[in-house]
Known about the structure:
By secondary structure, the protein is mainly alpha-helical. The protein has helices at residues 3-8, 11-28, 42-46, 52-71, 75-92, 97-105, 107-119; strands at 31-32, 39-40.
Amino acid sequence: MAAFGHNRLTDKDRKRAKRVHRLARLLDSQFRIPGTDIRFGLDSLFGLVPVVGDTVTAGMAAYIIFEAFRIGVSRRFIARMLGNLVIDWVIGTIPIVGDLFDIGFKANERNIRLMEKDLGVALADL
């Protein structure tokens, strides 16, 4: 990624970015099904509780977007991140289909990639 992005972030922004990067991983890919390359996170697990579980993880995903806004991610990218959140929440509320969708869609990791693209920095490298 471009070097300029890393330089424009304050220490506080770097801490925020690291925190949301870890949260996205926890929500989307923290765990692996043994013997496979299939990864899932708390979003998939909480999604087993219809509507309530997806709403709880949507709140965590909204926190990621809020922090992206505080860091200075552009409105265009924030809008795309919100779109990912809405898609994930709406489809996630559908029993079984939503749980499978969560494993494949990984809205939070998509949003981290959008942040990285807009900021010009790999958040994992901070």
